[in-house]
Design a protein that fits this description.
- The structure is a homodimer of 216-residue chains.
- The first copy, chain A, starts with a strand and ends with a helix.
- In chain A, 58% of the residues lie in helices and 8% in strands.
- In chain A, β1, α1 and β2 form a beta-alpha-beta unit.
- With 216 residues, the first copy, chain A, is of the alpha+beta class.
- Chain A has 2 domains: 100 residues, Glutaredoxin, CATH 3.40.30; 106 residues, Up-down Bundle (Glutathione S-transferase Yfyf (Class Pi), Chain A, domain 2).
- Chain A contains 9 helices and 4 strands, in the order βαβααββαααααα.
- At the A-B interface, β4, α4, α5 and α6 of A face β4, α4, α5 and α6 of B.
Chain lengths: 216, 216
């Protein structure tokens, strides 16, 4: 059964692939599962029909027969559990890959998003420069720790996995900020993710949505 | 094999059960799995021996034979996968319970922690009152959405699950703030979690560590 994923009708990132449907598209491409996309306006995201699928009124959601899921992490995990390629077979290696999924979303992403939000919402406040410096230090601390763990390996904990997919997706938010670039091994890690054919296909698909919306 | 969990030698919350080892203790108590605890000073958490277990230098970790995990969400999931009682048998219900695990940690917890951190770190800044009001609104938005989804059900999506365990753990951080109390159904939901015998046992165990450290 072909799953349906929701995405922004017009992504606020301008088609840079930073919206969270990208993670789900990428995972589906990695395992070779075709999917359909249903686009939503910001207005539609807050209406009852979508809130029934996603209590927090966000994208992405995932519908497959009578199953409906939200939360990009849970959706990527669902895909990884049901197809080969995103979680190791060995039980301990699998548990560690899942650990990196949680680490990406609960340890790395919050300070990165907090910095982004301050850059959008607090730019005109008197405290902005001071706050921004503090937020950048929080992000650097995590990048330094992650870089130390990655060492000179290609991927965290062995081969490519759902954990690496989510970690690369989170770090991509920092691309061009200068912060990621302070850690060359992490910048190279992100570039390895972007170079995967499945990533390229997923990126092109989300980009096409934005291009069509801009032309329309 | 008895697993070993790490916890703070002296929890910064004063034994209120808000440190993240509590979630793991609670999950282990729910499934009836005995465990050992290794206590760590703040200094030890940043030393190489612990960083080898936890790249971000935090607690809890989970060791079981040659498996070592970090991230409370991943550890709770590992426990839930290997024992009955925390995830439904039905595949779709199981996927939804996992969705609530991610929702607790990636949608609900970040604004709650951001508010807590501002209350600790920014209390003396000129911008504090203005920032705090904005942070409280972010928390209220999520509480309102969660409350709407919970409705008059006892638990999110059926029976008690690892998703509810993590959601209650996250909401407990707000207890006494006044914010949780603005949503009586969520306050009652948290109280239902606290009333579970497994929660009570886990709470007493972490409390005893703090009491002993304070007496020592």
């Amino acid at each position: 059964m072909t799953p349906t994923v929701t995405a922004f009708e017009r992504s606020p990132d301008g088609g840079k692939g930073l919206a969270r449907d990208m993670r789900v598209r990428w995972a589906l491409e990695e395992v070779g599962q075709p999917y359909e996309v249903r686009l939503l306006s910001f207005k539609a995201m807050k209406e009852p029909a979508h809130l029934a699928l996603h209590p927090f009124g966000q994208i992405p959601t995932y519908e497959e027969g009578d199953l409906a899921l939200f939360e990009s992490g849970a959706i990527v995990f669902h895909i990884a559990e049901r197809h080969a390629g995103l979680l190791p077979d060995d039980a301990n290696a699998r548990a560690r890959a899942i650990t990196w999924m949680f680490a990406a979303l609960t340890t790395m992403e919050p300070p990165i998003v907090e910095r982004e939000m301050a850059m959008i919402l607090e730019r005109d406040e008197a405290w902005y420069e001071q706050r921004l410096r503090g937020l950048e230090e929080s992000v650097r601390k995590r990048l330094g720790e992650l870089s130390a763990r990655l060492g000179d390996a290609g991927w965290l904990d062995g081969g490519f996995s759902a954990g690496n997919l989510l970690m690369v997706s989170v770090l991509l938010r920092l691309k061009g900020s200068g912060l990621l670039e302070e850690y060359p091994s992490l910048a190279a890690y992100v570039a390895r993710g972007e170079a995967r054919p499945a990533y390229t296909r997923a990126f092109a698909a989300q980009r096409a949505v934005f291009t069509a919306a801009s032309a329309g």
